[in-house]
Amino acid sequence: MYYFLTHLRVVAALVVRETSTRFGTNPGGYIWAFLDPIAHIAFLSVIFMAIAHAPALGSSFPLFFATGYIGFQFYQGMAGYLNSAVTSNRPLLSYPNVAPIDTIFARYILQLGTTAVVGFCVFGLIGLSLRASLTIDWPFIIEAAFAASILALGNALANNVLFVKYPLYEKFYSIVTRPLFMVSGVFFLPDALPHPAREVILLNPLVHVVMLFRRGFYPEYRAIGFDAGYLYSVTFSLLFVGLLIFTSSRSVLRSR
Question: What is the pTM of this model?
């Protein structure tokens, strides 16, 4: 119990430190957290409004792209932030009470909270611009956010070790994952694709995350092809592998 409380206090302190480091005391740091998704959503909306009469779901382009972008960000924002958790906090690991996993958990909590607050504000603004009120099914949204964040956590646990041991892998990972935004169903409906493109796209677990997230905003969306079993199989398998790699490399993480 004492060990648990000690690490709980360490994680809480790290969350405060990470918040100060990431956003600073200047309100501009917080404003950018909101401007970035708003700019992406506005850009996609303007582009597709010029080439299409209506979005693939509903009648609002901003809402359609926001459901895709925010759902995707629960993974992408988390993965990008967690991948450097240990290396960015290496000086603190010289203290015996600070474990490498504490840095991961601190950033996980901060990023999950940040994305949730940003998403709430973005959808609030979009809701004010709509003629009809938003119909929100919270269980779908919460489940999608949880699945995306755990998928990112498992991925980052492995990457924090592999990036240190194999610098070339970090560059390879950056190149391979760059097209994820394009193939995760952010600006299209995967279930509307023809065979065999649909089956190939559905191999990407993030596609299922975005589909699940959109079900929370569109009651009429059937999400054909969504497979919760596949999503959670990949998610928890990656989490298990990530934990295995991370816990077996504690000495490597502390010594470098």
Answer: 0.92
